[in-house]
Amino acid sequence: MDLSNYRQSFEAAYAAGELATAPPTAAELRVHRDNQPWIDALMTPQPLGTAVQAIRLTGARERVARRVYVRATGYPSPRFDACREAARGRGWTIREVACGHIAMIDDPDAVTAILLEAAG
């Protein structure tokens, strides 16, 4: 699956009355080659509700003292880049990890350091 068309696959599956769509492969998520077989074995269909159901925001996240946006830079995504810049504009701490989409698998040490920093 070409991830640039992943949203369209969601929309097509929703229009067809399906409940889920096939997950991307670990390679498409740019997971490190050594971790790909394990990740692929764990992947399950992606529920369509994650993309088509509205989220209700209460404003509670604005009360969180330390907000950190973590961008896995080895996974190209203009949408994630835009979210990173929006978070930066709202004063969030920005951290980047040079890995694919599943940072906690490819670079657990970096993710641990970011979490410890955020916890203060």
Task: Write out the strand line-up for the largest beta sheet, numbering strands in chain order.
Answer: 1-2
Contiguous low-pLDDT stretches (5 residues minimum) are none
Can you count the helices?
6
Report how far the terminal alpha carbons are from each other.
40 Å
Could you describe the largest sheet, including whether it forms a barrel?
2 strands, antiparallel
Describe this structure in words.
By secondary structure, this protein is an alpha+beta fold. The chain folds into two domains: 1-55, no CATH class; 59-120, no CATH class. It is 41% helix and 12% strand. The protein has six helices and four strands, in the order αβαβαβαβαα. It has helices at residues 6-15, 36-42, 49-52, 78-89, 103-106, 108-119; strands at residues 20-21, 46-47, 68-72, 93-97. The strands form two sheets. Strands 1-2 form a two-stranded antiparallel sheet.
Task: Sum up the structure in keywords.
alpha+beta, 6 helices, globular, 120 residues
What's the arrangement of secondary structure elements?
Elements: H1 6-15, E1 20-21, H2 36-42, E2 46-47, H3 49-52, E3 68-72, H4 78-89, E4 93-97, H5 103-106, H6 108-119
Parallel strand pairs: 3-4
Antiparallel strand pairs: 1-2
Quick take:
This protein has 120 residues and is α+β, with helices and mostly antiparallel strands.
